[in-house]
């Protein structure tokens, strides 16, 4: 019996041993499977994080053109914190989710009855939408959800195309019968389209194109549409919208100085390779200086609208009630943005063709206000006569904060303008003033950056996009990639001449007659233009 018990005991021990071994193996398998699953999930999360993580997060602290200034009575950290606060307030007040499509967002512009003669139910306009797409792209990094909002704004933009050119945005929407619909003509407005296009270039640099939206491709589509439908095809000036026919002697001869976003135009030129953009840039600067010399030599003011004289071909201030109000030929609500829009090009690119006009504008506004920002009125005739005693609106004062950056002689004026504008309560301000202030303060704090600034990084980004889209293919892909790497290697080592030589070889590869079937004409123009700009930068 004892022997039997011993045998039984051994069998029981063996069973227990086998059971424990089986359980151990099972645990290892489950653990391994869990680890694999976890690793897959982690990789997925890492991929999502990588895809949504901004490459140019706020704050950026850009160095603008030599000789320009920023406020110096506060620290950079204080400026950044103020811009972040203004953004949080802007987002809370203006950025709204589409109640009928949760994947869309828009910028609400009708808190204070801005929609007067329009439908009372109006919710937004393309101008506001462009502002929102710029702001969310630039504030990524501060706002962890910036990409979600930007993509939602993009979807809303695409859901409301112009009937004339569907790559552009219908200019106004309203909620009617529980639906967001286009109202007042399903056509475009140039300013919104230009900001949307520029914002897509920012988004391309900010998040890349591995997600749902190819920002770079979409940006180029909008840029090409602007050229096709909102630029006069013979004289190359900016028109009001896609509904303004080149052949119209009423609206086809009009342009609006607040649309003179010259730095946008410079970016469009660098990205598209369309040489017509240079003509638009030259024409725009020519119009600015002609009007300044003829109509506002003592003030530098530009009117809300300009019309081309059919006899002389020169532009002159529009007559009363040309389009919007009795003040269409004065410096009024539209042109309040001019000091911001035109100065930005000088700050970022150094193009000084409007410097005389802007310098006169700065000296005149300081003199007429006694260097007190609170005295900036809501509108002036071009000779400087004030249109009203009303003052203190940020829509007029914030843009002067940007233009004040041009010259160190404006330092105290710039400091005072900063304080005056940032201390205004967002909740008490109107949509127009708050959005203009938001963008102006981003610039003044040094956090406005160019998505097409000449650099090796930009060259690499362009080439990667062209290869991904198939615009550069075959053996030319490796040739250009390797040559660009050589240029970068030489430049990092401080061998500037060798780096220039590599970029010259880069251009030679592109021009190789035997490889022309491996590169599109657009890619060829853009890559050569940017390579030549980089060579010029290194040579200077």
Automatic annotation (TrEMBL):
Coiled coil: none annotated. Residues 456-536 form the FIMAH domain. Pfam families: FIMAH, Glyco_hydro_8. One of its GO terms (molecular function) is hydrolase activity, hydrolyzing O-glycosyl compounds. The keyword Hydrolase applies. GO terms for biological process: carbohydrate metabolic process. Keywords: Glycosidase, Hydrolase. Belongs to the glycosyl hydrolase 8 (cellulase D) family. This is Beta-glucanase. It comes from Lederbergia citrisecunda. The lineage of its organism: Bacteria, Bacillati, Bacillota, Bacilli, Bacillales.
